[in-house]
Batch of 3 targets.
Target 1
Amino acid sequence: MNKKHGFPLTLTALAIATAFPAYAAQAGGATPDAAQTQSLKEVTVRAAKVGRRSKEATGLGKIVKTSETLNKEQVLGIRDLTRYDPGVAVVEQGNGASGGYSIRGVDKNRVAVSVDGVAQIQAFTVQGSLSGYGGRGGSGAINEIEYENISTVEIDKGAGSSEHGSGALGGAVAFRTKEAADLISDGKSWGIQAKTAYGSKNRQFMKSLGAGFSKDGWEGLLIRTERQGRETRPHGDIADGVEYGIDRLDAFRQTYDIQNPNKKAEYFLAEGEREPKPVAKLAGNGNYLKNQLNRWVEERRSKGQALNSEEEAMVREAQARHENLSAQSYTGGGRILPDPMDYRSGSWLAKLGYRFGGRHYVGGVFEDTKQRYDIRDMTEKQYYGTNEAKKFSDKSGVYDGNDFRDGLYFRPNIEEWKGDTNLVKGIGLKYSRTKFIDEHHRRRRMGLLYRYENEAYSDNWADKAVLSFDKQGVATDNNTLKLNCAVYPAVDKSCRASADKPYSYDSSDRFHYREQHNVLNASFEKSLKNKWTKHHLTLGFGYDASKAISRPEQLSHNAARISEHTGEYTDDGKDKYRLGKPEVVEGSVCGYIETLRSRKCVPRKINGSNIHISLNDRFSIGKYFDFSLGGRYDRQNFTTSEELVRSGRYVDRSWNSGIVFKPNRHFSLSYRASSGFRTPSFQELFGIDIYHDYPKGWQRPALKSEKAANREIGLQWKGDFGFLEISSFRNRYTDMIAVADQKTKLPDSTGRLTEIDIRDYYNAQNMSLQGVNILGKIDWNGVYGKLPEGLYTTLAYNRIKPKSVSNRPDLSLRSYALDAVQPSRYVLGFGYDQPEGKWGANIMLTYSKGKNPDELAYLAGDQKRYSAGRVTSSWKTADVSAYLNLKKRLTLRAAIYNIGNYRYVTWESLRQTAESTANRRSEDSNYGRYAAPGRNFSLALEMKF
């Protein structure tokens, strides 16, 4: 059916919201006139809830997605949320979880993330594990959000602290959870929604069940969601035909003396045993083979002294063990496949409230989400390579029983061990060397809410007032588990050091980090108008009492034993050894750590508080101009009793302004200016804590808040054809905090001043960048009435170009910001939605340019360095998706991604090798593991009752 559209784009966008809710909402204009408000009163309220201009006049840099958008785009995780949004990327932190978002050239704690106005946990990473055996002491992850609980997502690109507070330097991502009305169909008093989905790229299976009701003033909802998945698989041909050849160390018994055939080999007698046994030697020891055994064999043969069969067998046993391993089985540097991961999550969302007096609502919320990422680090070699022979060179090779491999071990040299000091500690050669990383997140929130709602432009003191209190705790638990207790080639995550396995070993290097927030927020909205102007005022107050607690733990166990020469010999001169029964002893590095000022194996705590007040006015003058003007004042205090932990008061002011000129209903010119700030994160307040100790009296240098300024200008055309928006932006960041070395004179043990490099966090950088953003949608029926209604095209483009970077001259930087800049990206979509919503399909085409290597270069002192060793090339891909509604209660959705099975690597994935990554994979020589998945699919079935 063809029809002529009689409304401007404000209503056109609402009409096509089902087809493409994110972009349709973005197209909305200023407040509709009185006639439209009267005739479309309910629709207008819903549009304001998800509108790009609901809080700021221009809408520049805004992306809004509803739960319907998330369903249509088949969002199964954080990496799907911004799949088709150029300029917004997910930060990979290297251990399965993510470190938040990257927007406008900055990332992690510089992009604010909140749920229902409550800030989420900060990315926290200490500089290394306590044990020094590799790995990070903290994950660097930001807790992820359960998307089945989400009603709307607002992505704000550009500085926005006047709305989002500290952290909104490059932008912000604000989530709003569902209300009972989101689960109840129109005209019903209750509703049930069930959803089951599967994604093949990471074999994720999701199931969600929610129920809501509204009866006699009472309303509530309950949603339970569970997910289970694996690691994301790279392109299928990455590992085709790949095989690794390794040479590993093992043990052999030296039963013969090859150099002197008439001389007996080295034997010993274990106390309590009757027969002497040959000493265990290291098989694959290159120096021994080259300079002794293999040379002796050649000398024997050159003299015509052939080796007998037993000697030949012993020589073969003395060589390195060669194995050919598949890509799946191989462990070590250069592994082409990602680490295996088991992912699980479970979430509850419950709300219950009561409406009374027609305008008042009182309710409560409970939210509990658990996530776990259990990984085996396959870059940890399971075997001991021939280049590690030196570890075992000074061991006697004596053993009891028949397993001669028990005679070869190396000593852990970091822990302080409890128990008998005569016990010999060691890690046995015969055990598989394995490393597991378990990362567990938990977020729990309880809250109370009062809401008052009235008609717009009423005579009452407020049109809307909201008072809320939320108590939230978010914890991350990162445990690096090193195990040497399963006999090679077996792998057993549940094994531990035990007395029946001599020289077995286990070590747990654990880091707990927790943030608690008690948040009180109040907001008041009032609309005013006269003959020429309309105002929408919002006044906000807030108080946040916060606490950050970091707690490292390190504990090791070893099956140690007495192993000593008795001082006696057999009648024929063989050594006698005393080998005691193995005992499991406990050890830790914390005894040494406790002697340092810079690091402790005890909980450390920072208390924080923040008071803020904000005022925003979105107003129009006549029909040609819309404005927004707002400001916010924040005062934050951080206190601590911990040594070498920063504290202090930060007072920050932020603002925003916008103007829209509309000469006619089809064209508008917009300008937006805003500012942002970020107070030092808890990680930066705790400071660098591993590289060196500090003399008494030295304190960490104070840090200032980072600042950001954002300027944008945009043009928008809208009409029956759809809309097109082109904008140009410029962002400037000052006082950026970075890890750097500063030459400092400190007294040595004799009191003499000595100049050393102090590595810590400093306000070290300023930088600016500029870019272009294009967003549009074409309604082809509006362009040409004979084309089918529901046929559309979407387009999006984003380009960011760094303009300048300046560093403090007295610092030598050890980190760099511009690797967060995403390459330019184009996204073009073609789709059709049947006018009655029965079915629809679309294809999305994505093209990305490669990463510019110049953006990775920086100066550390006078030395040019690169934050990553490689960059990505340009790439392209195409995705298709479709949905089918069955009897208004069932919706079947399906999508095929990368339909051309194109092989490519995104910068977001390869950036895991950059210096800024929490768990950097800098040792990888094979970058195939970062390849995007090949052709993959997702399926979802939604049921509504």
Note: Residues 1-48 have pLDDT under 50 and may be disordered.
Target 2
Amino acid sequence: MTTESDLSYPAHWEADVVLRDGGTARIRPITTDDAGRLVSFYEQVSDESKYYRFFAPYPRLSDRDVRRFTHHDYVDRVGLAATIGGEFIATVRYDRIGPDGRPASAPADEAEVAFLVQDAHQGRGVASALLEHIGAVARERGIRRFAAEVLPANSKMIKVFTDAGYQQKRSFEDGSVHLTLDLEPTAESLAVQRAREQRAEARSVQRLLAPGSVAVIGVSRSGAGVGAAVLRNLRDAGFHGHLYAVNEAADTDLLDGVRAYRSLAGIAAPVDLAVIAVPAHRVPDAVTACGEHGVQGLVVLSAGYGESGPAGQERQRDLLRQVRSYGMRLIGPNAFGVINTAPETELNASLAPAPATERGRIGLFTQSGAIGIALLSGLLRRGAGLSSFVSAGNRADVSGNDILQYWYDDEATDVALMYLETLGNPRKFTRLARRTAAVKPVVVARGGRHTPAGHVVPGTRLPDATVSALLRQAGVIRVDTVTELVDVGLLLAGQPLPAGPRVAILGNSESLGVLTYDACLTEGLRPLAPLDLTTAASPENFRAALAVALASPDNDAVVVTAIPWVREQELAGDLAGALREAVAAGPGKPVAVVHVELGALAEALSPGRAQPAAPSPRTPLTPGTSQTPEGPESAPAADPAAAPAVPPAADGVQAGIPAYPAAERAVRAIAEAVRYAQWRQANADAGQVPEFEDIDEAGAAAQLAALLAGVSHDAVLTLSEADARTLLARYGILLHTTLPAPSADAAARAARVLGYPVALKTTAPHLRHRADLGGVRLDLTTEAELRRSYEELTELLGKPQELLPVVQAMVPRGVDTVVRCVIDPAAGAVLSFGLAGVASELLGDTSHRLVPATDRDAAGLIRSIRAAPLLFGWRGSDPVDTPALEELLLRVSRLVDDHPEVAGVSLEPVVVATEGLSVLSATVRVARPPARGDLGPRTLPSYPGY
């Protein structure tokens, strides 16, 4: 909302946020046009709240007050408002002050802050959200501390400040509580912010999946069409809440046996969730009706939005803007719907006909309706059940990140399956996935690895292999197909995690056992010799052999292979019962069954054919152990290493034994479970981002500000060698001395300064780091050798002004490596490591981690490349100084993480010797930082162009 008098209006401060109760609000700067809104807002605030704000009775705002509170320079005086439906529900402002407490300008770095929240919206977390945003604004404007005066009786506002996690001082002066908050983010403040984000976003999804009432808008009288289909599915699934049908032409009280209304306004009761199934041009009217009726969330099935071209993308932007203006959340548009199988809800607000799925322990999220249908069909066919299902379509609002927030502490979900075409905000996704994977498996199949033309979600420049590596770093189980998604999900939902990679194989076919053995080797597992029970084996023989394998300390998982008998149908049930009996007696290891043309066996082993168990509390499982009740007060997320794998039975849902029609599929599922269990054990301690006492963060910030002064917002500046050297030195990264050599005489003088032996190098962009082209001469011990090499270089490659030669003193010999950090538009800052030359450039032998990297990440970076043995004494060579290399990686990570202005760092080569290392060359690129990042205040993502 910019006016002529608000030429400096900071549009990037606008943000949509999710509040504590799951509703949304918009935060934006207050402008001169807001006088009427401010007065109306103030009139709805109670006298008590006004007293707490002004420390005296203050029934109304004077004209002077209104002008003061709506006119800001957005530097020394800033006001923000939280709005719903365009109207204020809360305000916050700061005024910069000097040491004497009077109004001041920069460089004063303290400001007085004050809040006012409408009584009807108190308790929703509005003030906490405003504090995060006004704090980010203040830091952007050079303010480092907030001061606040609060009456002792105003306990709610005191709690807002004390719970924020900032370092603070508190005193009692002149009858009020004086609080001073240091706005520098701390580990505690970040943890508080993310915990609030998780609770709010999880609650917003919970309101969508567990509504007390649902209205379907667009139900045809004929019973045909999308709206009528959803209404029938809701009815047939046995939805426990109130159900309404809406059709503006309804001429009867009932549609498909459900109470019908001509408009939403005709429903005299609250409506929590509305499913909109009308043509796109009628959706805005439906959204308006929902907003005015107080609906909490929408599922928009209607197509014709972002998937249909530029006009549809604009229509989608308008839809999101309209939905959020009413504080609602949106699934869709172009959605397939949602399912919640919880016995107290039984919601099927989707196009999947009943029975869409059985109740189970798997959560499923898809971006594609077609893939959603395929996955639901596959799970139903194999007898697996779901806890919840969301097919979000175009994801204008609710995305996979929101669903992960919900699943994180959803006790009904033990495994999260996700089909994603894009990651949207990969940095946030990997952060959420890492946290969720610490307590339950997250399995992801990615489609659209290459962003198609016209796609509305920005893609990533990173290779798919790099994206996979980053996902695996976060504990995500990455699979390639939807078939593998189901295969892995079934195993993880029904079996404990393996304690290691040792696999026992038994069955009635030697050949099938050998195939399974080979598949295990291919996946990096350690198979034992297959046990051939022969084709004459009975179900009892299978039971006995499986019981022995499960009791043996020599294996961590078991694969049972089976080929048909003559009387398959008669024996399939007996064999399934025998296998179940053995597993029940020894439940500590995962078991998978490989069957060839034994469909009846797969059906008999499915969860749907098992006898339901009595409800039991969800209890932790450590890989390789059996379920041990610890009582209802157990905290499953307290110890990530011991967090629940997946209990065999919970809440009356009985797990089956997963069966696969091919050995490769069963073994791949077990291998993924093994790798995930290893990740869980290794990441019980996620590591720390170290503090370095010699870092000059303030000096680096000042240098970057000076370098970027006058640089346009879309420009990227490559620093000169001198500027790069200075910036890196502020973070303890020292560049090896380099002296220019524009002539042979200059090269000789440089060598005398540095001392022999020296190296002569070209630094022209087309020759840099290309020793294979002859642009480097090493170990020059005399001036004569140096001059001869200089002459050879210029005769072979060009004139000195083209080659830009330099001279460096020789460094101790070691292994040449490359350290880089790049900013990807989707993934954020990515730290990379590899060996210099062919290994990384031609073979792609490079490892990656997200910034900020921990000490564990740095150690893993070095050890993850295939050529890592060269660093650790391969073939009798001396090991190099890997601790020094790890420290260098951490310092680069800190530089990029502390300063978003740094757009890229490349250190090449870094020669790592047996003691210490030398950085011979560096390239640093800088640019103006984005307005907000994942480390900024909580905010919902904006649709492009919103």
Note: The longest strand covers residues 87-97.
Target 3
Amino acid sequence: MALPAPQGRRSSTHSRLLRHGFTDPSAAGQLLDTPEFSPVREDSVLLEALGGTADPDLALLGLARLVEAIEPEAQQELLSMLVAAKPLRDRLLGVMGASEALADHLVRHPDDWRSLVTYESVDLHPTTPEFEQALAEGIWGERGEDRSRADALRVAYRRCLLGIVARDVCGTTDVAEAAAELADLATATVRAALQISYEEAPGDAAVSRLSVIAMGKCGARELNYVSDVDVIFVAEAKEGVEEAKALQAATRLASRMMRLCSDVTAEGTIWPVDANLRPEGRNGPLVRTLTSHLAYYQRWAKTWEFQALLKARPMAGDLDLGQAYVDALEPMVWQVAERENFVVDVRQMRRRVVANIPADRVERELKLGPGGLRDVEFAVQLLQLVHGRSDPTLRSASTLDALAALAAGGYVGRQDAAALDSAYRFLRALEHRIQLFRMRRTHLMPEEETDLRRLARSLGLFTEPVDTLRKEWKWHAREVRRLHEKLFYRPLLDAVAHLEPGETRLSAKAAGHRLEALGYADPVAALRHLEALASGVTRKAAIQRTLLPVLLGWFADSADPDAGLLNFRKVSDALGKTPWYLRLLRDEGAAAENLARVLSAGRLAPDLLLRAPEAVALLGAADGLKPRGRAALEQEVLAAVGRADGAEAAVAVARGVRRRELFRTSAADLIGAYGTDGNPAEKDHGHAIDAVGTAVSDLNSATLGGALRAAVREQWGDTLPTRFAVIGMGRFGGREMSYGSDADVLFVHEPREGADEHEAAKAAQAIANEMRRLLQLPSSDPPLLIDADLRPEGRSGPLVRTLASYAAYYRRWSLVWEAQALLRAEPVAGDAELGQRFVELIDPLRYPAEGLGEDAVREIRRLKARMESERLPRGADPTTHTKLGRGGLSDVEWTVQLLQMRHGWEIPGLRTTRTREALAAAHAAELIGTEDAATLDEAWVLAARVRNAVMLVRGRPGDTFPVDGREQAAVGRYLGYEEGHVGEMLDDYRRITRRARGVVEELFYEG
């Protein structure tokens, strides 16, 4: 029985172990106190070596398990060699400190530690032939005699993997060399598995030529420790053999090869062989002839399939056939950038990848998350496809080699390429070390402190390892994101700038190709704009060169990049000499992105901005895009009108305020619809449409109030001989105005006490006419058209009536449609008390006691049916007309208004001018079911959003989707559809409105 170590020695050992990086010195001390370790227990060399590993505790535990697993006579040999031979010591302990899985392998196969002893020059950088020889010895040699072929392959693979890991963790190879070795080992492994398949089915091997094409990271020789090995199979019949028979035989051989690598046996698995990159994916045949492959790629292949072929290389089997496959497809790869939907496809691929990452993993995702490995690979591949068609030097499968070639050719800035190379190597090393621990496929940063500490130390970060690792990772991820944004656009600026002698830069032709690939329809004009903005040595040009790479990316992310860049040039020309403009864009993070979104999303907002470019300041202010509210707007407008010299000048000021507020509202709407890095797109579309309707209605009310004050002051001073009010009707009264809505109004007046009624009437008529004239004067500001056709007797009746005249008319002559129109009546300007009395006058008319009679209901239905048949514009598609079409605004509004007129007298919630509020009240009162109410609301919101989108995009109102492709795409982007999904947008619109029409048929027509 061994006596316990003296307390002093234990304390001394405990301190030494702590100093050497052990986190559990007690457990480590117990392992060292075992008899097996007695010859080396006090050896400082061994402790130093353990202390230099990623996880000293794990390394010592692995060593103890290995020592226990080997024969007693071999234990002394291993420990002696560990102390005497530094290469073995560093390799073996380095592997055990970094990989629990490989320590397990060594315990199962204790003699494999000897594979780490050799240190010949060929052993430093083995390639495929060396790995093939090692695998052959392990499978068909003496070592494989007592094992099945599948188990022997796995053991031999792990033995080779030990050497790769040892070289990696000791720094003999860098991350790129380690990745290349892993790919070479995978090549040798697939060849061995295929040879086993031939051995098991010689008949199949005799009738077919089978070639395995490496794809993805294996094809590029940049494989991870644990990764699917992507392949494509191509086969041909041997001479005299039927093609169908040969393909069946090749399919059996390929399937067996895949199982040999992928199946789990007593010795575990190697990695999955994934053939899903083949034509038609899982739905296509596993093996095709070369002719069949060519036919598919010529007719059916998508952009991403050509992008995947960048990495293709013959790997195993018939290498001549594999080379013929690569040679035949290569020309198609370098023509893909000329395809019609190339830009759309590329953007969608990246967005789809990011969108599919679970929200709780995005920040930990090394490969697919923002600032991750895929960002680098994706950017490099896109630039290869764009420029590789005319420059063969870029046609490399390796990401880092391609990046170096892009820098050498001037397609990427040298400093940017160097920074990106460094970040990519760090992220790949991080990925390797994470996978290495348990040999599991993962791209997620660990969360446990222990895992992070081991990970950091494996990368050489020994001082405050966890904090240092987090900082370095975040810094590299930020660098990738920053450089990813610059990578495409910085060289475009260099192409139009004056560089230092000897500097390589993008040619005009190459710059044009890149701009085309990024979605610019007129690359010549785009380059001209860039030259005007960024050339020169002024401070302004220097700041523009800093801003433009990011702005160009945001423009390219829109439906009309050309318009975005042109508008930016116009704004910059107008404001370039003001000291605050470029400083705002440079220093206020959100301002630049907000401006890019606004300038490239359509015509309305840029037109409003270009009439008064100083409004760009709203995009950077904290509350700059929040609507100001009616009271604040009225106060500003009336104060401005009071200071103006004359009515026309006063209304010009009021219209200027309206223009600014229209810009504020439209900019907020666009930014909310598109979303930005800091603020995701608005999900509650109903809230967004209500916000626009309220804001536009409020600013139009304030504008009318200003025009009224100006008209009165011009002719009558402070007091008009009659009280005068403006009543909003239609969407104005419902506070549901769109950007292109006219202001539907009624004018009501009441002579002041003692005033002559005739003079009062003349004054009221003059005021109404003067307001209309003032608001339609030629101006750079958008006009506000006043429409008073909903007044009694329409255009045949007087423009202005007294309150008493309205009462008399409605009492004697009012028709049911007029009562229905009054459902939207609300005072918007002028004498508030008179406006309220008008509301009290019409309430019994629009909410009749005991509801509508059956005759009135029939009349409303008759009018609606007549409107549907007569008012829809000739040639208009009734399935997509937002106002009068099936399930559109009119359908929903008439259905809700009928409920208001029938039940408003008894249900207070229905007494509102707003459609959605009335619909919600009807649902709350159980007049309409939950599903039906949701269907009507969804259709109304969608139709209203389409109308707003059309105005934002085209700069003029419209009730149907645009015909022009770019305008249609811009409407789609506003509605949340990615490029290339216009058909889906129209299908969704028709589906939603068709369902709404079904509800209308049931509720309105009771059909």
Note: Residues 1-8 have pLDDT under 50 and may be disordered.
